Amino acid sequence: MTTVQITLSDQLAQEAQRAGLLSQVAMEKLLREQLQAQRRDSFFSAIERMAQVRAPAVMTPEEVAEEIRAMRAERRGKAGG
Q1: Other Cβ atoms closer than 10 A to 59
Q2: How many CB atoms lie within 10 A of CB 26?
Q3: Closest Cα partner for 33 from 45, 20, 41?
Q4: Structural domain boundaries in the chain
Q5: What are phi and psi of 74, to 5 degrees?
Q6: What is the pLDDT of residue 46?
Q7: 3-state class of 59 per DSSP?
Q8: Which residues are CB-contacts of 27 (< 8 A; sequence separation ≥ 6)?
Q9: Cα(51)–Cα(17) distance, integer angstroms
Q10: Using CA atoms, how far apart are residues 62 and 68, in angstroms rounded to an integer?
Q11: Contact 35, 42 (CB under 8 A)
Q12: What gap in Å lies between CA 59 and CA 66, rounded to an integer?
């Protein structure tokens, strides 16, 4: 178990204490909720970035086969050289 010390203004600390927010259970719940919100925000941010990326052109089967042939020829050239 880890102990965390925070510094709050007296007014905020008193309000939080009256509201029951400074208990171990309440603090753990608040932190878990915030962590979940951050993960969710990060996930949606990543989705937005992905949506902005221009998708590469779709290759035909013939173009794929040609790329494979070129790669194999290059490898043979390096192996023989």
Answers
A1: 11
A2: 13
A3: 41
A4: 10-80
A5: -65, -45
A6: 96
A7: coil
A8: 21
A9: 44
A10: 10
A11: no
A12: 10
Low-confidence residues of the chain: pLDDT under 70: 80-81
Residues 17 and 43: their CA atoms lie apart, in Å, by 33
Measured in whole angstroms, the distance separating CA 7 from the mean position of its chain's CA atoms is 30
DSSP state, 34?
A: H
Give me 9's structure tokens: 């203004």
| CA atoms of 20 and 18, how far apart (whole Å) | 5
Tokens coding 51: 């949506």
Q: Are 22 and 16 in contact (CB under 8 A)?
A: yes
Tell me how long the chain is.
81
Dihedral of CA 18/19/21/23: which sign?
positive
pLDDT at residue 81 in the model: 60
The two tokens of residue 10 are 């007296």
Cα–Cα nearest to 24, from 3, 55, 45: 3
